[in-house]
Amino acid sequence: MSVSGIERDNICIMGKMNAGKSSLLNLITQAETSIVDETPGTTADTKISFAEIHGIGPVKFFDTPGLDEAGTLGEKKKTKALEYFDESDLILLIIDPSHPPFDVEKEIMDRASQKDVQLLVVFNLFDSEGEGDAERILQELPRSKQYPHIAIKAPDSAYREQILEFLLKNYQSKTLRREVLPFVERDKWYLMNVPMDIETPQFRFLRPQQMAVEEITRKFAYAVTYRMDLGLARSENWRQEQKRYLNFLNSIPGEKTLITDSQAMDIIHPWTPHDITITTFSIMMLEYKTGELKYFTDGLKVLEDLHRGDKILITEACQHSRIGDDIGTRQIPRYLAQKYPWLSPENNIDYCFGKACKYPEDLTRYRLVVHCGGCMIDHQKFSARIRRAKLSGVPMTNYGLFMSFLQGKEALQRVIKPYGLEI
Questions:
Q1: Which of 141, 194, 374, 400 has the smallest set of CB atoms within 10 Å of its CB?
Q2: Contact 368, 375 (CB under 8 A)
Q3: pLDDT at position 36 over 60
Q4: What is the mean pLDDT of the chain?
Q5: Are the CB atoms for 211 and 199 separated by under 8 Å?
Q6: What is the pTM (predicted TM-score) of this model?
Q7: What domains does the chain contain, in order, with CATH numbers?
């Protein structure tokens, strides 16, 4: 697995104020990762930390505020913490046995059971009576018996080996280590169309492009990049750019596959000979992150039957400056309005962009969600969004699939064929 494409297990530490959540994180990471203090509410917002746990691998920790903090601010913190709950593979519920009542702990256990999320209970013993209190809690909270538990003193480094052994024994990682490009073969040619525009950052490729180059090279295949001049390709002098493009293709010997930026599909599909396999970076990232390519492909069926009044949500995970002919705010709305003249980008389309975007809990007001490739969020967050859509009965599709669909059934079939799918 490449460094740029690393996938981590998400572990969320939860509990009441002053239960020892930050102390537990510091114990595991062997560092002063989080500030520890007796003042209630020291953790003002969820702190995200990265670590490597031998036997588990790379891990992302969410050190959350206490869920029992009162007031409007406390409710806001709790809402945010529960969002991280939904994106986590494991919940570490830390309990101070001497601090009843245990309504918060019961709520977390119930949520873990409802959402089928792994949960481990850590009793943090602040005094000599704590162990007996822990046994009493196990009786008071019957559900707690179904979860593995351990009793430690979180601020004491002598307990570090015990908590690590506890994690290794009781946590089963479900993080899938997918290949970025599963169809890459040794000594084959893989071409990448990178039509840089005004939004492209200087001195680096975008993350999907970096990941593709690394994956192809790692598999002893040949990675070649090409920058198409999309402005020229769509102008009255398009033949000039077409000739340049075909010369490039012809200069590469043997069997080859092309991976393109989604927004170039209107040029790439008609210009690329049919013996060359093509797909898009957005589709590549979608399948790598979630394995849900078929679900997103099926979501395109909604576009064949949109009705007046239907709303669409367009969402991206990254926070780049949206200038020029931006694909999310300009291209996709423009294409939708062309296909459906009654559709108004102002009234029928909502947007949710960037990591700070409050992704809707209930998506039922939308007929379709159009999502980016998700390269800037982890697979857990992406999968949580997919679960919400499925529970709401709302189809989803993806930028790369959408831009291919616009070019017709043949174009759509071309981009999903490398993944063994047919329409």
A1: 141
A2: no
A3: no
A4: 89
A5: no
A6: 0.77
A7: 9-170 (3.40.50.300), 189-283 (3.40.50.11420), 292-405 (3.40.50.11410)
